[in-house]
Fold this sequence. Notes:
The protein is mainly α. It is built from 21 helices and 2 strands. Helix 10 (155-167) packs antiparallel against helix 11, helix 13 packs antiparallel against helix 14 and helix 15 (239-251) packs antiparallel against helix 16. The longest helix is centred in the C-terminal third of the chain and has 24 residues, at 347-370. It is globular and about 65 Å long.
Amino acid sequence: xxxxxxxxxxxxxxxxxxxxxxxxxxxxxxxxxxxxxxxxxxxxxxxxxxxxxxxxxxxxxxxxxxxxxxxxxxxxxxxxxxxxxxxxxxxxxxxxxxxxxxxxxxxxxxxxxxxxxxxxxxxxxxxxxxxxxxxxxxxxxxxxxxxxxxxxxxxxxxxxxxxxxxxxxxxxxxxxxxxxxxxxxxxxxxxxxxxxxxxxxxxxxxxxxxxxxxxxxxxxxxxxxxxxxxxxxxxxxxxxxxxxxxxxxxxxxxxxxxxxxxxxxxxxxxxxxxxxxxxxxxxxxxxxxxxxxxxxxxxxxxxxxxxxxxxxxxxxxxxxxxxxxxxxxxxxxxxxxxxxxxxxxxxxxxxxxxxxxxxxxxxxxxxxxxxxxxxxxxxxxxxxxxxxxxxxxxx
Length: 395
């Protein structure tokens, strides 16, 4: 089951490192429209305001929309208090702080917005993410419930906050968020997929299977449906079936970077070796996955494995180190890195990777030993019978 935890962490609905890039795009529809309106009006109106400040605001907004959050912050700070639309500035600045992990700076700004006339699902959801990222679970759930009161049927409200908890390795809290979402959206394939992933992370793959299957049924012949089916088979060790499903998805034009990563990983695990068509297929799938989403750790790690099998040590180490940077808690990367470094004659680096791996394994064993012995219901669960065996004692 520990192997399932290490493999499943990478393959999921949204790579954690990419959430920030989708914040603007995935805001609730009506809230997104409101934010765009504020942004556009701020960008167009210079009457009675400092022209340089308005220019800074326009530049900051443009950078935010491109995902250049760190670069946008100085422009917003420079324009603060001197523009015609302070809401557009304050909201976008808070969004940048959340995207760059500066939650302590985002929270006061968002609290000021949510207590004023601009309270909305967008503001409350961003506040929930900030609290979650800052380790303040109770406050995060309060803000999430306020956001859900505005738009209870928007699944992205729940997915964002779940990811914010998951980035802190708060699997149980993330599951609580998804369960809350399923209360409002019981037919959401994405939420069922996410719950399946989280239950797998909590060593309950048997409990995850019905959600994988439900997601497949609800979204048949879609990317999320194929992803759920391929993921379930990969985790179950049904590699041939995971490959078959991923290939069908590709033939139907589904080019999701996670499906491509699953295809590449499954082919390598099936024993594909250099010189075989299956090995070339695995490489092509992984390269295409990385081209679509370069900060997806699982693709980087799997392509590093491919490079290692071909004896391309520099390329292998580059991809594996990228994967380690993106997902440092993933134990799967460390044996591969140790092997690559050792083959490259870098014994000290190889030993360092094995030391980190031993520490991760020890920490995981400690979590299992110290977890509560009884089953514990997840607060906010959509059904009274939903339990997670031995959850981490964080809530």
